[in-house]
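Morning, I've got a small favour to ask if you have a moment. Here's the protein in full, and shout if anything looks odd to you:
***
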Amino acid sequence: MIMDNTSDITMLTLSGLSGETTNRMVIFSLTLLCYFLILMVNISLVLTIILDHNLHQPMYIFVCNLCLNALYGTAGFYPKFLLDLLYSRHVISFGGCVVQSLVIYSSVCIEYSILALMAYDRYAAICRPLDYHSLMKKQNVCLFTCFSWIIPFLIVLASIIKTSTLKLCGSHIDKLYCASWVIVKITCSPGLTNTVLGYICIIIYFFHFVYIFLSYVYLVRTCVKSIESRGKFMQTCLPHLMTLLNVTVAVLFDVMFMRFGSADVSPMIKNVLSIEFFIIPPIINPLIYGIILTKIRNRIRFILFNKKVIS
């Protein structure tokens, strides 16, 4: 994505680790362990859902896609970060920076799209049970799932392509990884189009969050009216709500520090908050679903202990 007429700068420097020299191997070991744990829990849940035909239902299909997205998003961060921990010079090509930014940003947007689908699925199951099978039939689920990946990816791609055409006036990125907003900050002239595209993306996914939040408010109001609905909410909606809060807090930490971060904050705190999205949600989310959702929990128990558990 490097344009010949945009800039002579082809290599960028990531300076997030520049002050960390003494504990590099300890951080590498912990990061590798963390990435291995992310791969293990997410792949385990994906395989559990794929291999068990009883779990081929909309809710579990969306959970499976949430785990696949976690694998996709973390693949854009961990391999490069692990390599940086092994070397003293942390550089990345402009093209590689653009691709990393595309993967990370699209992963965040896809996450919210899938969570919005989950909110709609729970609304249909609890508030319109008689229409549920017609609303969430196989063709609709496939279509919704494809849209939840393709549309966010294309929205982010449009913004990233525009960013990649801008002329660079700097090569220093004060972060552990590449992000579109950081790339824009080192361009000679960000341009109105880039700013507009960025805010359009933020507005679109802010409304995703509002829709999800209001859906669960409505579900809570509906479920308190009966014990049966209350049990269904606690069993199937609570993990979705926990995931939404988990992801949103992680994203807000990164966005706030990237755009409004103070120079007085220590680099270590900045680094921890900037990568919280790659640590907490990818590990906690599959554990939440594996523990709270009865069918998944029982299937995992059966696989581990070869013992059938009654729901």
Notes: Strands lie at 11-14, 91-93, 172-173. The longest strand covers residues 11-14. The longest helix spans residues 94-127.
